[in-house]
Amino acid sequence: MFTAPFSVPAAAAATSALALGPPHLPTGIAWTVLIVSGAFETMWAYALAADGMRMPRRIALFLVGTVLSMGGLALALDSIPVGTGYAVWVGIGAVTTLAFSVLRREESLNWLRAGFAALLICGVIGMKVAS
């Protein structure tokens, strides 16, 4: 049996193959990516409810928003714990979608709803501070 002079043991080869996965983002960048991808939830959520838009455009908007939102979430979760990251992502998406709907005058905002949205934002900030 022929053995190459510079062969790598099988265990070392398997370990180095695992190291070839996606790079870990620095924590600050991961949080930025997470927040931006949470905001892109608004894009796909709007596409689901956009009655005045033709279906091909709605589908394209939905797909782009989903890829950006989920892709950013996946990148960020490589550096942020999944429970914390997902909670922040959902909170950011909920608040930005509400803000977008209010700006488009599709929903109204009273003091109670604004207070609960502020509570969501406080929760997002709390998750960041506590992690």
UniProtKB/TrEMBL annotation:
<protein>
    <submittedName>
        <fullName>Multidrug efflux SMR transporter</fullName>
    </submittedName>
</protein>
<keyword id="KW-0812">Transmembrane</keyword>
<keyword id="KW-0813">Transport</keyword>
<keyword id="KW-1003">Cell membrane</keyword>
<keyword id="KW-1133">Transmembrane helix</keyword>
<feature type="signal peptide">
    <location>
        <begin position="1"/>
        <end position="19"/>
    </location>
</feature>
<feature type="transmembrane region" description="Helical">
    <location>
        <begin position="110"/>
        <end position="130"/>
    </location>
</feature>
<comment type="similarity">
    <text>Belongs to the drug/metabolite transporter (DMT) superfamily. Small multidrug resistance (SMR) (TC 2.A.7.1) family.</text>
</comment>
<feature type="transmembrane region" description="Helical">
    <location>
        <begin position="59"/>
        <end position="77"/>
    </location>
</feature>
<keyword id="KW-0472">Membrane</keyword>
<dbReference type="InterPro" id="IPR000390">
    <property type="entry name" value="Small_drug/metabolite_transptr"/>
</dbReference>
<dbReference type="Pfam" id="PF00893">
    <property type="entry name" value="Multi_Drug_Res"/>
</dbReference>
<dbReference type="InterPro" id="IPR045324">
    <property type="entry name" value="Small_multidrug_res"/>
</dbReference>
<dbReference type="InterPro" id="IPR037185">
    <property type="entry name" value="EmrE-like"/>
</dbReference>
<feature type="transmembrane region" description="Helical">
    <location>
        <begin position="29"/>
        <end position="47"/>
    </location>
</feature>
<feature type="transmembrane region" description="Helical">
    <location>
        <begin position="83"/>
        <end position="103"/>
    </location>
</feature>
<keyword id="KW-0732">Signal</keyword>
